[in-house]
Amino acid sequence: MTKPEQKSRIFLSVLATESINLAIRGAIKASWAAVKDKKPHIITSRIEHEAVLDTCRDLEKEGVEVTILPVNADGFVKQEDVRSALKENTALVSIMYANNEIGTIQPIKEIGRIVKEVRRERGGVYPLFHTDAVQAVNFLDCGAERLGVDLLSFSGQKIYGPKGVGGLYRKEGMSIKPIITGSGQEFGLRSGTSNVPLIVGLAEAIALLSEMKKLAGQIEQLRDRLIERVIKEIPGAKLNGSLENRLPNNANLNFGAVKSKIDSSLIVALDLAGFAISAGSACQSKAQKPSHVLTAIGLSPQEVKKSIRVSLGKTTTMEEIDGLVEALKKILEA
Fold first, then answer.
1. CA angle 132, 6, 48 (to 5 degrees)
2. Is 56 a catalytic site residue?
3. Catalytic residue from among 283, 295, 314, 323
4. Residue 206: how many CA atoms within 13 Å on its side-chain side?
């Protein structure tokens, strides 16, 4: 019995991290198999999630060429930098849709157009374009065809679904190779018995996405109130990243210039006050290492140390926002 062809567009994975690995490693394996005499080239950015950056670093050790693009002070990848970095052997461009730490929304459609133009000029299927849309699915249009992406990674837990399940969109006709082999589930791309309860939970979360998108304006108003009050009432405080092109639920606040004895203990003080706040990526909240994202946008070590990430959700209230501002003022004035 032969395995079915790769016609399905959504492949389920255990985690978004696995989805990202499947997209990147799978695309490179397919490229290497198709063009044996050319070393594949990947383009990504300095503010990607570690799942992307570590995967690219691993592949670099295996002989893959990797270009990591810089970002500006707001965390944006310049479109001209993507165009300039493209080479004859570029097999994959991987740029995240929205950043998990500073909320910056990248010009994915425009980058997708650039990749498509180059592919048309070459008359082939490469380079492929992958985006990590884990943070974007709740609030932004993630229609892969409209975005012009070939591969799109997403997570269940970021859309109020269960933890431990994610997925990968693959455009029909774009070949990637499996990184987990076995019985050939998920059309041969991801072997292993599927966890049906988690998949059902993911499907329900996706079905409810339209309700979440309706709340985006309300969440954005709360976020703007937080930013406005902090900057107005705490001298020296500022916002990390762009205000205009930003996820509605994200505020990354910088207290590096605030005169206070509090530094890295700000997170602890806020926790004791009843607020669950992080210093950077939630995935690395216990890693105790400086944020590579904040470093990439040019912040000093002191600013990185005294920055916090506030994530709002559908249950966040005005009272909680005002309470957080008052707690920050009290802690920083101590």
1. 10
2. no
3. 283
4. 16
Spell out the domain ranges in the chain: 10-209, 215-333
- 194 versus 105: the higher-pLDDT residue is 105
Kindly state the DSSP code that residue 9 receives in the 8-state scheme.
S
CA-angle at 17, arms to 59 and 175, nearest 5°: 60
For residue 230, how many C-alpha atoms fall within 13 Å in the half-sphere facing its CB?
27
pLDDT digits (tens, 9 = 90+) for 214-245: 999 999 999 999 999 999 999 999 999 999 99
Q: How far is Cα 95 from Cα 135, in angstroms, rounded to an integer?
A: 13
Q: What pLDDT, on the 0 to 100 scale, is given for residue 38?
A: 84
123: alpha, beta or left? (left if phi > 0; alpha if psi -120 to 50): left
Output the CA–CA distances (angstroms, integers) from residue 193 to 183, 185, 322, in the order listed.
9, 7, 47
For domain 10-209, is the CATH number 3.40.50.300? no
Q: Are 10-209 and 215-333 equal in CATH topology?
A: no
- The bridge status of strand 128-132 relative to strand 151-155 is parallel
Give, to the nearest 10 degrees, the angle between helix 16-34 and helix 50-61.
30
Q: How far is CA 58 from the centre of its chain?
A: 19
**Stated pTM of the model:** 0.91
Query: Which CATH class for the 215-333 domain?
Result: alpha beta
Q: Check if the beta carbon of residue 70 is closer than 8 Å to that of residue 296.
A: yes
Name the residue type at position 280: G
Q: How far is CA 85 from the centre of its chain?
A: 21
